[in-house]
Design a protein that fits this description.
Domain DNA2/NAM7 helicase helicase: 330-393, 421-496
Domain DNA2/NAM7 helicase-like C-terminal: 509-699
Radius of gyration: 38 Å
Strand order of the largest sheet: 12-13-11-14-15-10-16
Distance between the termini: 70 Å
Protein name: Helicase mov-10-B.2
Strand content: 5-15%
Largest sheet: 7 strands, parallel
GO molecular function, one term: helicase activity
InterPro entries: DNA2/NAM7-like (IPR045055), DNA2/NAM7-like_C (IPR041679), DNA2/NAM7_AAA_11 (IPR041677), P-loop_NTPase (IPR027417), RNaseH_sf (IPR036397), SF1_C_Upf1 (IPR047187)
Helix content: 25-40%
């Protein structure tokens, strides 16, 4: 087979290898090879148009043997005597360049054919025994599935359909990633081939920019040309492309990329091959319990050793029947629990105890695979025993040097694939899941793989077909292990159709759900709960996601940031947490769908500077943001000031950890959380930090999500809230309302109540002393235990009476007025006489001046102590040609450009604000020179200045901010000849192709850096004093916050004490038996509400089905509702949903339906047929209450008449608490008389009377006639949507009935609306 065959499995690398070579000898050989290539192409010109010869004759005519090729080289050297070089070295270069294609010709003779690959894929020097089948994309099938038609019931066919849907979405995404090229494409001079170089914008997905991928170029008036990528240049952000010789290099071009189908084809093949082992993978059979932990590895804990022992069990321990592969083991490792360590130690033990074992270790990403390789090498595995298999199109420079020694490379240093015989000699092969397809292609189709053990790390992060790829190379009875965390980020699925059909559920998560469906434990599921990463306070933020199972075992090093919290937050704190509220504005660029938040970026940069000032290495810091645009912005800001912290999206940090993590959540618009609603993404972000976690975002918006709300609640309790947020806003809504009532004076003591309440007492109900706010806060014995932890705060209160007890407000710092006066009295900026003279001379010569202005503000969120400054820079270049030349010369350099002359730096006068700094800089240029083009990055400043220059009267701009500066400008408007140009801020000059635009971006970055230095360096004494005041204000806020915390805790203590006092009195009057009798015999006189004859014709659209809706209406007829909230024994008990659910079930002799997920993770409505079915579904007392609430709500929405009284309040009620439960439960505030009332009360009294907290988590033991369990047709989401459409009709009818009742027109006949 010809090595140049283009229908190969993957694409090889074809690069000009002179790039980056420093050695002169090697560079000379490359030059000789390039010249010899041109010599060969002139001597041998393949005649492809000839049809008289066969293919064999054509190859024979246009190829040379190695001897003939040597003769040609000698002839070439005779013509160019000065360019001598070794023939073998030159031959290696030409084969690597694919100028020559090597072909075996028998008897050890090699023939070399001169290739003609213009406009074709780069060939691959490898031979596969089982190439990938060509799965043809079937859009019609995808379209039918998208409409809900013809969805395959067979799981294999479903996987194929979803892969096609994902591929279609990938094609759509690539089609959107287009960019324009306005200049002819330059030739790539470092290769003898005719290759073109194209620069690629940053927004193009890196998955599309790979060697061998296709690229499409269209220019106006010419047909579209298809090219292939032969090399990637990361430093230049460019690709090297080969086009057909008919390519017309005439701009402008529209460039778009094609997709690489190889990953999709690999997954399709894996789905087909894995069909034979799918039954074993999905089996719920348990493993025979192994003997006591025999693992002697002292590096592992007990849970980790259990997994190690299970991995070493012989086949007999699994018991009959014999399986083709062993039943897979699942290792669930939450963050920091040592999952990777467990895998590495297990693999090491396996190959040590069994030298004949062949182990395949795979992971979804290259980063995870590299980590596994590095960790295994640390245990002493040498390159002759382990191979890190790389994709042959991967850049060598992107792989760590510690990993490269385990890779296989060709003569030119590119990654290569060993032959089958060499592969089978390695004990361990590490690769990505997709690269494992190379291994399957190296084995004949009819033969199985050769690996005895297959480990897939981060299996919960990969699609099911991707996870199946490494499993296809396992031999019979191989051990398979899937390791990961099902509560971290799952597979990235972009097709909505595939997501709706559960394609985002990984194989590990599906098997985990299947094995733990009936019980939380399974002998093949190993859960690690001891976490060794985060500080205990950080662990508390994400531990609720794991139901509180994680145990903190972090080392002392995770507590090293606690002493530094005083510098970070201005006060001592025992928790290394900072939640910084930032009410910034989210925005998008015109060419991007991603989001950024400029204000959050400034806050993050301020924290980074603080950390570096504390001598924290930048390598220990990570910055996470869910949006790529914010990520790029932060990278540019850090690059401008030389900060080398790791910055990336959440996906980049999965599996990684840092000593300090900063999170920028970006979103600020109410109701738009986007990615942030994904609890798995939130979990990954919160669990990366070891010693310190800083979250910057809009806390009010984040609190609308349950996961973020829990984390913010913990942060509030730990005193970790800060930022541009008032002290009151740091508290939850319910607590804040209590505090507002206190501060506003709504709180009244008994003495105040005497003015309008006759029986009010003036003494405390607990200690009989005079009742007052001071007494309740500082003196009352109720709450003495609470005050012990607030001793420091109470001492402050006693010393400073302004804090309390009568009006708790923050004190005003005594130095604030003086400091603000000093800032308003800052001196005017001074311009040098020489620079002014030089600028005026340039104007006299007819040269257009170009200025760069910018402002900077430190601590912008602290209004009283923020301080700002501005800078002005003059461009000394006289022409645009000079600017273009300098732009090219300094491209990619970190040196300062000498043509940028700093003219002026000064601190703002008056209000310290970033906008005032921007306007001050423009006014300074106008007053001192008054000529030229000013490049400004603030559109607001430009608009205000232009308004002032063009207004006839100051009244036109009187409503603008900083009107005093605009008035100064207006007075000199007739002598000012300036033009303001908007320039985009914080651009990366390396990504700008146009030299002139790049020059303006360099100038803006330069003036921005100067302004930042000026802001922190000018008048350092004042800056230091402002910082001290800012720290004092933070301490005062923290103290006031502690006072508020004390208020809230004492109020809760008094409320509980009052409730216990009432409960004691009630208990003395009524024993438990009397309470049960009172609830059982509760009778209600019929009130105002009477259920009218309901119209039931829309119940057929009920989400629960027509039968259950009709049963609900019939049951509601038997509820007798009172007019008030009185209950048994004169107490306001209300009624819980659990009681209503039991009454419904006893009345209808049926169990309520439940919602359960199917194998695809989609919610469906299930109907238990009896007690056994209800127990199998796990229907509990509490869930039955939830379901009856949903059923009542849905049914009431479909009946035009009211089936329950209006004005009922939902919330917690005390009915079950009074029957013996230890807590309140959700229900209604008004208690009706219900069917089967006595039976319900007796059943619940017996259940809650056991004293078990989880008693209501059991299944109600109700004896109903047994029926068959059923599952409703259609998904729960679809049934709800259908029901909501019918509810609109019911609401319309309800309004007509209400209008008629109020004296309106006669409602329409029912037949007019029910259709």
């Amino acid at each position: 087979m010809c090595i140049g065959d283009r229908d190969q499995h993957v694409k090889g690398q074809c690069k000009g290898k002179t790039e980056g070579l420093r050695d002169r000898l090697v560079a000379r050989v490359a030059r000789v090879a390039s010249a010899f290539a041109h010599f060969l192409q002139e001597v041998i010109k393949p005649d492809k148009c000839s049809t008289s010869s066969t293919e064999a004759e054509f190859e024979e005519k246009n190829s040379l043997t190695d001897v003939e090729l040597g003769d040609r080289f000698q002839e070439f050297c005779d013509l160019r005597i000065s360019e001598g070089a070794d023939f073998d070295e030159v031959l290696q270069w030409l084969v690597g360049w694919r100028v020559l294609i090597k072909k075996r010709s028998g008897y050890g003779i090699h023939r070399f054919m001169v290739s003609d690959l213009d406009g074709k894929k780069p060939p691959l020097d490898v031979h596969f025994l089982y190439p990938l089948p060509k799965y043809k994309l079937n859009p019609s099938m995808v379209q039918a599935v998208g409409k809900g038609q013809g969805i395959p019931m067979n799981r294999k066919d479903q996987q194929h359909a979803m892969l096609f849907a994902e591929e279609v979405e990938k094609i759509r995404e690539v089609c959107r990633e287009k960019f324009e090229v306005k200049k002819p494409l330059p030739l790539y001079k470092k290769s003898p081939r005719r290759l073109h170089k194209i620069r690629v914008p940053a927004f193009i997905s890196g998955q599309n920019v790979m060697i061998g991928n296709s690229l499409y170029v269209r220019s106006r008036g010419y047909p579209q040309h298809r090219g292939f990528i032969h090399a990637v240049c990361p430093k230049d952000s460019a690709v090297i492309v080969s086009f057909h010789p008919t390519f017309h290099n005439k701009p402008p071009f529209t460039v778009s990329f094609g997709i690489n189908r190889i990953p999709f084809l690999s997954k399709h093949r894996a789905v087909d091959l894995a069909e034979r082992i799918m039954a074993q993978l999905e089996s719920t059979k348990r493993m025979i319990q192994p003997p006591a932990a025999a693992g002697c590895d002292t590096h592992l804990n007990v849970q980790q050793k259990q997994f190690l022992d299970a991995s070493l069990l012989p086949l007999l321990m699994w018991g009959p029947p014999p399986f083709e592969t062993l039943l897979p083991l699942l290792l669930w490792g939450p963050p920091g629990t040592g999952k990777t360590t467990t895998l590495v130690r297990t693999i090491w033990t396996i190959i040590t105890k069994n030298p004949t074992a062949k182990v395949l270790v795979s992971a979804p990403s290259n980063a995870a695979a590299n980590l596994l390789c590095e960790r295994l090498s640390e245990l002493g595995i040498q390159p002759d025993r382990m191979l890190r298999l790389m994709g042959m199109s991967r850049e060598v420079a992107s792989v760590p040097m510690a990993v490269q020694r385990f890779t296989c490379k060709d003569a030119l240093g590119n990654f290569a694939l060993p032959d089958l015989e060499a592969l089978q000699k390695y004990q361990v092969i590490v690769c990505t899941c997709t690269t494992a397809s190379y291994l399957r292609s190296s084995v004949p189709k009819e033969k199985p793989g050769w690996f005895s053990h297959v480990f897939v790390d981060e299996a919960a992060q990969s699609m099911e077909p991707e996870t199946l790829i490494p499993l296809t190379v396992a031999k019979a009875q191989a051990l398979v292990c899937l390791a990961g965390d099902v509560k971290q980020l799952g597979p990235l699925v972009k097709s909505k159709l595939a997501t709706d059909h559960g394609f985002q559920v990984s194989l590990m998560e599906r098997l985990f759900t299947r094995l733990t469906k009936d019980t939380k434990e399974h002998s093949r599921v190993f859960v690690l709960t001891d976490t060794y990463r985060s500080h205990p306070s950080i662990l508390k933020l994400y531990n609720p996601i794991y139901d509180g199972q994680l145990q903190c075992c972090s080392p002392k090093s995770s507590r090293d940031m606690v002493p530094l919290m005083r510098h970070m937050m201005g006060g001592a704190s025992g928790h290394p947490l900072i939640f910084h509220h930032c009410d910034g504005k989210e925005s998008q660029n015109e060419d991007s769908t991603s989001w950024q938040n400029i204000k959050e970026g400034e806050v993050v940069m301020n924290y980074l500077r603080k950390l570096l000032e504390l001598k924290i290495p930048a390598e220990d810091i990570g910055v996470i943001t869910p949006y790529q645009l914010q990520c790029e912005r932060l990278k540019n800001l850090c690059q401008a000031v030389g900060i080398k912290a790791k910055i990336g999206t959440t996906e980049l940090f999965q599996g990684d950890e840092k000593r300090i993590i900063l999170i920028s959540t970006v979103r600020s618009q109410q109701g738009s959380l986007g990615f942030l609603t994904n609890y798995k993404r939130t979990n990954v972000a919160l669990s990366r930090a070891k010693s310190l976690l800083l979250v910057v975002g809009n806390m009010k918006l984040l609190s609308t999500d349950q996961t973020w709300s829990n984390a913010i609640g913990f942060a509030k309790n730990m005193g970790a809230m800060t930022g541009d947020i008032g002290v009151l806003r740091k508290f939850q809504d319910s607590k804040r309302w209590l505090l507002v009532r206190e501060i506003a004076g709504a709180y009244q003591t008994a003495n105040q109540k005497q003015k309008w309440l006759d029986n009010a007492a003036g003494t405390c109900e607990f200690c009989q002393k005079e009742d007052s706010r001071r007494h309740r806060l500082l003196e009352c014995p109720i709450g003495s235990e609470v005050r012990e932890s607030f001793s420091a705060v109470i001492d402050d209160i006693l010393e400073d009476e302004s804090l309390l007890p009568d009006f708790p407000v923050i004190t005003r710092h005594p130095d604030l007025e003086a400091l603000q006066l000093m800032q308003f009295a800052s001196p005017q900026p001074v311009w040098g006489q020489a620079i002014c003279t030089h600028a005026r001379n340039m104007v006299d010569e007819g040269i257009t001046l170009h200025w760069f202005t910018d402002g900077s503000c430190l601590h912008p969120t602290c209004r009283h102590t923020r301080h700002s400054a501005f800078a002005v820079v003059l461009d000394l270049c006289k022409t645009d040609d000079e600017r273009r030349a300098i732009s090219e010369q300094y491209r990619g350099s970190t040196l300062s450009i000498p043509t940028f002359q700093v003219v002026c730096t000064a601190r703002c006068q008056g209000e310290q604000d970033i906008l005032r700094a921007e306007v001050s800089a423009v006014v300074s240029v106008a007053e001192n020179v008054g000529h030229g083009v000013i490049h400004v990055d603030s559109q607001v400043a430009i608009s205000n200045v232009q308004l002032a220059l063009t207004s006839l009267h100051p009244a036109a701009f009187a409503g603008c901010e900083h009107v005093d500066l605009l008035l100064r400008l207006w007075k000199i408007r007739h002598g000012v000849h300036i033009q303001l140009v908007k320039i985009k801020s914080h651009q990366d000059p390396g990504l700008i192709d146009d030299p002139l635009l790049r020059y303006w971006a360099l100038g803006n970055n330069h003036v921005d850096a100067v302004a930042q230095v000026a802001c922190s360096s000018l008048n350092t004494a004042l800056v230091q004093q402002l910082d001290l005041v800012r720290q004092d204000l933070k301490v005062d806020k923290k103290r006031l916050e502690a006072v508020y915390d004390l208020h809230i805790l004492l109020q809760e203590v008094r409320r509980l004490a009052t409730a216990n006092k009432e409960s004691e009195i009630s208990t003395k009057l009524h024993d438990h038996r009397a309470l049960c009798a009172a609830f059982s015999n509760w009778t209600v006189q019929p009130g105002v509400f009477q259920l009218q004859e309901p119209d039931l014709r829309l119940l057929g659209s009920s989400a629960f089905g027509e039968e259950f809706a009709r049963r609900t209406v019939e049951w509601s007829r038997h509820l007798i509702w009172p007019d008030d909230a009185s209950g048994p024994l004169g107490c306001n008990t209300g009624i819980t949903w659990v009681e209503l659910a039991l009454s419904w079930m006893l009345f209808n002799q049926l169990f309520l339906p439940v919602l359960r997920k199917d194998c695809l993770g989609i919610n469906r409505l299930c109907f238990p047929g009896g007690y056994d079915g209800a127990k199998q579904y796990g229907l509990s007392f509490l869930e039955s209450g939830t379901m009856v609430q949903k059923l009542l709500t849905n049914t009431a929405g479909l009946v035009p008449q009211e089936i329950m009284p209006s004005g009922l309040t939902h919330g917690k009620c005390s009915a079950l608490y009074r029957l013996g439960s230890c807590r309140f439960y959700q229900g209604l505030d008004r208690r009706p008389q219900i069917p089967f009332q006595a039976e319900v009360v007796q059943l619940l009294a017996a259940v809650v009377g056991t004293g078990r907290k989880e008693a209501l988590s059991d299944t109600p033991n109700l004896a109903f006639p047994a029926k068959q369990d059923q599952v409703a047709r259609g998904t729960w989401q679809f049934r709800l949507q259908t029901s909501s459409l019918a509810m609109k009709t019911a609401r319309k009818r309800r309004k007509e009935i209400i209008n008629f009742t109020a004296g309106g027109s006669q409602p329409k006949p029912k037949g007019d609306w029910s259709s």
